[in-house]
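Input structure tokens:
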């Protein structure tokens, strides 16, 4: 079983957000937890597989985006006094090329959901009996 390492630290996220107090720590920990779960899902990782270190940057960047979206969740765009902000439908959108590339290189792309075979009972074939 792989070691469950910390992908990004609370301190790194606070540094990126320029937060110097512990006031938002609970919220930031929740953002880290949810982002980690979403990235694990997008990478098709099992519970005992770690998020690859070469994709740690995605975790940090998405956490920053999620924090900055607080109070604007669900909005496609926001405008106030001449300032306009447009949000991607997913915070991971800008990283999908990196995610898909990693999945391809590591055999995580699903090409098929299985195999189906259909038989025509009216075909007159004796094997259909």
């Amino acid at each position: 079983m792989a070691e469950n390492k910390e992908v990004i630290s609370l301190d790194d996220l606070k540094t990126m957000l320029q937060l110097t107090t512990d006031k938002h720590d609970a919220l930031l920990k929740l953002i880290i937890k949810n982002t980690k779960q979403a990235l694990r899902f997008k990478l098709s990782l099992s519970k005992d597989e770690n998020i690859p270190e070469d994709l740690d940057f995605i975790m940090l960047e998405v956490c920053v985006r999620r924090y900055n979206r607080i109070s604007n969740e669900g909005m496609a765009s926001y405008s106030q006094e001449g300032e306009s902000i447009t949000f991607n439908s997913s915070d991971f959108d800008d990283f999908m090329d990196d995610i898909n590339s990693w999945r391809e290189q590591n055999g995580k792309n699903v090409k098929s959901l299985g195999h189906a075979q259909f038989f025509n009972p009216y075909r007159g074939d004796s094997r259909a009996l």
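The chain is about 40% helix and 5% strand. The CA atoms of residues 62 and 90 lie 10 Å apart.
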